[in-house]
Amino acid sequence: MKALIFIIAVMVASHSYAKALSGQDRPNILLVLFDDVGFMGLGAYGSDAKTPSIDTIAEKGAQFSSFHTASMCGPSRAMLMTGQDSHEVGMSTLVEMLSPEMESHPSYSMEWPDDQKTLATRLKDVGYQTFVSGKWGIGRSGKNLPQKFGFDRSFVLDATGASNYREAPYMPLYKSVSWFEDGLPTSLPDDFYSSRDLVNKMINYVDEANANKPFFGFLSLQAIHIPVQVPQKYIDKYNGVFDRGWDKMREERLPKAIELGLVPDTTKLADVHESHRKWDELSEQDKAYWARMMQVNAGMTEAADDHIGRLFKHLESKGLMENTIVIVMSDNGAESNTVGQLIGNAKPIQVAGAKFWMKTESWDIVYENLGQPGSLGAIGPEWASVASAPLNRYKFNSSEGGQRVPLMIAGPGVAVTGILSGRAHVTDLVPTLLQYANAQYSPDEFYGRSLLPMLTGERQDVWGEDSYGFETSGNSSLYKGKWKITRVKKPYGDEQWHLYDLSVDPGETTNLVAQNTVVFQELLNEYQSYSKRVGIIELKDGENLMRQLIINTLKKWPVDNWPKLLFLILIIVAVVYGIKRLKRQA
Length: 586
Known about the structure:
alpha/beta, about 15% strand, disordered N terminus
């Protein structure tokens, strides 16, 4: 019976696709991008966060279990928009992590030429109306704004992140954040909340559009990037849910992932990093604090889903949803870093500097205010390892936890396939959507390849034994068939190449280099060819993105904030003088 249903679904999908190819009824396309959602961070993937609206996309179409992105946002977004490797389009890392050597290299230009083609420009060429609402964050702020690259309407945050309630940066490297509408600087309303207002803006763009032409809408949420923030009612929904703590809940994620069919039953959990705290060793006060922090994270995810649900219902009310392909995905794995917290690999001097900056910018991390406008909350590495479970590590690392993320697709021409375990690369989405839109292209224009044969049920994968690679600030990986080689930089890796058989070990627990030297060398040779071809600057041992971020912050912050620095120096001088004077009097 199941086989018959599947055959019928494939036939229906093929018919819908043929209709799209005829040019009579090009589908609308809605691309929903979450920020920093780990592999098991959404309901359909086993999360404790409730996401019924986007879970319907998995139920009505395809859910991927081996979809890979870069391990950080900017390169992923550049690849998502162009279909090309991030190095080929000058977006190899984040601006914040550029070293002096990278600054003059074309693979790290952080600025697109005027003729750079994007998914939006290509769809516009075949009659689409194109809209983007949300975080942009591709390259240098203000240099690659979407209206220059195919978007008819745009309302974007051009930064790696910011407050969800106000125009405020989330880290000391920045003095301010920039919002733009249609290429011009704009300000946020006083009652702004990101998920709600970004969806409202997308609804407005759709309502103002020509009803006789298809649209491409790119909804790029701030959820659930630092700072995790959401109205109180969503936080309280999760009272008690995370009280079991990260150690136990991470272990619980493994059997759930196996039961859902996301990973094979041979999967094991890798050991957490030595810097992770053990839940049972926390004080009761700390347990309450960190359980509450994860409630905020889950609540923010659910709030985003609620607002996405409003968008879906609005499209249904206009008769548009039936002919809309919907893609829901994350840009990379879960965020492990915090600001102003002495946890993980944070150094006391870094925390002290961050707290001084937070004080000057009206940020706090106190329990009573978690999730609210002035709270700079972040879930930290322990909860990030739960969100990424049963995979290893999280964002910024070339481990599976940093690169394997949710992807769901449904709509006309997409069969109800359930979980697809074949490999997929973030660059695959551009040729896939162009094929659905009947937009002509040459396959050799892209690093990725169309996933349409998987989405119609024709094939289980499109990469076969061909390889694809990734690299961001020294964190490197290459996938080929069931194999993966990876090199994770410090502070969470040993900077050595490892080999894993992902068909049985997606948790990356058993390094097989010694047992498979021929395979390892073959993959390493392919990575080196990839590195040379796309123009990667290989980092030396000890060089890593967090080290470079600190260096760049120490260079930039005093220049942007010299009055505050002068004030701090005067206070220190006054205190030292006072202490010496008291000693002389004694």
